[in-house]
Design brief:
The protein is of the alpha/beta class and 345 residues long. The chain is 30% helix and 30% strand. It folds into three domains: 4-104 and 314-334, NIF3 (NGG1p interacting factor 3)-like (Udp-n-acetylmuramoylalanyl-d-glutamate--2,6- Diaminopimelate Ligase, Chain: A, domain 1, 3-Layer(aba) Sandwich); 111-128 and 219-305, Udp-n-acetylmuramoylalanyl-d-glutamate--2,6- Diaminopimelate Ligase, Chain: A, domain 1, CATH 3.40.1390; 133-214, Alpha-Beta Plaits, CATH 3.30.70.120. The chain has eleven helices and 15 strands. A hairpin with a 5-residue loop joins β7 and β8 (179-188). The longest helix has 15 residues, at 142-156. The radius of gyration is 23 Å and the shape is globular.
Length: 345
């Protein structure tokens, strides 16, 4: 039996919840994680139509990119679409899980990696890495040192981030007799609980935990990479429109420079413009730019706005792929509902 919690656990091994932004509301929004999962619908937005689709297909879990609830709900009267979605999900015993900015912020199998793959970018890297590393100085007996190292290695297994690194600093005598080994453990923030449990499980271990300022190169916002060969600006924009299957690309003044380095961010990524310029990108692909914000290109880069839904549409396939890699014979359906609220004439 596959539980909803099993699906969630695998998703969170790829995109740990601790990587979500402070304003976000990723995670299980509606439902009981301990229930057997009868099937999954993947989507960008858990709208009323998607809940109806889940009912029709016998699925009791909707995995969405965008959370249906961002702020606290004070009433459930059905007056808003958010209230109606939550009420319908509860009434029909359907769980809603959102995997939002935490999926945006991981390098491997993240939203931006999917876009970069579609564009054929090479030598990709996080555009704005997050400083989220932790460090522990641990004193442990020689007899338990190997046990601790094994536990730390196991804590990092399956994580889409650098494994915890262990470095021996010194060897000395313990006051009560025997040998004491001083270890320095560096690890990504989401492994904090596992590392502390590993240390606490050993009778001889003592530790001091600190934050460090260096960035995790595999966690952060946006992505940058290179094309296999440079393209003229208009040729690149036409290729962008074709490969991302968008009906329209809004772009700033061309600079008469070949496109080689490409920066991108799925969804609203305007906050990364300076990072894109600093990375030496000739073009920055994102969405949700306002009229006056296009002037910020200032002749230093070409901004290409492809639309919010359009930039993230392949996340629907990505989520299904992530689930299927762990649960190969399980019913996973890509939504057939177009949840894009924007139409073009």
């Amino acid at each position: 039996m596959i539980k909803i919690a099993d699906i969630i656990g695998h998703l969170e091994s790829v995109a740990p919840p601790v990587y979500q932004e402070g304003y976000d509301n990723a995670g299980l929004i509606v439902g009981d994680a301990q229930k057997e999962c009868t099937g999954v619908i993947t989507c960008l937005d858990s709208t009323e139509a998607v809940i109806e689709e889940a009912i029709a297909k016998g699925c009791n879990l909707v995995v969405a990119h965008h959370p249906i609830v961002f702020k606290g709900l004070k009433r459930f009267t059905g007056k808003t679409y958010v209230e109606r979605v939550v009420m319908s999900a509860i009434r029909n015993d359907i769980a809603i899980y959102a995997i939002h900015t935490n999926l945006d912020n991981v390098y491997a199998q993240g939203v931006n990696a999917e876009i970069a793959n579609r564009l054929g970018l090479q030598n990709t890297r996080i555009l704005a890495p997050k400083a989220n590393m932790r460090q522990a100085t641990v004193w442990v007996s020689a007899t338990e040192a190997d046990e601790l190292k094994a536990a730390i290695q196991k804590a990092g297994e399956g994580a889409q981030s650098p494994d915890a690194a262990v470095r021996q600093l010194s060897v000395g005598a313990r006051p009560e007799g025997g040998v004491s080994i001083q270890l320095e453990v560096t690890y990504p923030m989401h492994l904090s609980g596992a590392i502390k449990r590993a240390v606490a499980s050993l009778s001889s271990a003592e530790a001091i935990y600190t934050s460090i300022s260096n960035s995790n190169p595999l966690v952060g916002s946006g992505m940058v990479g290179e094309l296999a060969r440079p393209l003229q600006e208009m040729s690149f924009l036409k290729r962008l429109k074709e490969q991302l299957k968008v009906s329209c690309v809004k772009y700033t003044a061309l600079r008469d420079q070949p496109i080689k380095t490409v920066a991108l961010c799925g969804g609203a990524g305007g906050f990364l413009l300076k990072s894109a310029i600093a990375a030496g990108a000739q073009v920055f692909i994102t969405a949700d730019y306002k009229y006056h914000e296009f002037f910020d290109a200032d002749g230093k880069i070409v901004i290409a706005d492809v639309g919010h839904f359009e930039s993230e549409q392949f996340t629907i396939d990505l989520l299904a792929t992530i689930i299927r890699e762990k649960f190969g014979n399980f019913a996973v359906h890509l939504t057939e509902v177009n949840t894009n609220p924007v139409n073009y004439l």
